[in-house]
Write a structure and sequence with these properties.
62% of the residues lie in helices and 0% in strands. The protein is mostly helical and 69 residues long.
Length: 69
């Protein structure tokens, strides 16, 4: 369990908005268990927001630019 937490912490430190990513992921998990009128629309949107926030990385601090993807 310890290596998993260490890896997750390192990943979250590399994100630009780590708390916002955690909040979106938590809302996604909670939303999976709450029934709604239009099934799966909000789950898909929250999942996409969590993925988008997970891809936003911090800018490099040593002055170098990251290569484009």
């Amino acid at each position: 369990m310890k290596p998993l937490i260490k890896r997750l912490t390192r990943y979250l430190e590399s994100l630009r908005f780590p708390w916002l990513m955690l909040l979106a992921a938590l809302l996604f998990v909670i939303d999976l268990f709450v029934p709604d009128a239009v099934p799966f629309i909000d789950e898909i949107l929250l999942g996409l927001v969590a993925l988008l926030l997970g891809r936003l990385k911090r800018a490099p601090t040593d002055g170098r630019q990251r290569p484009p993807r």
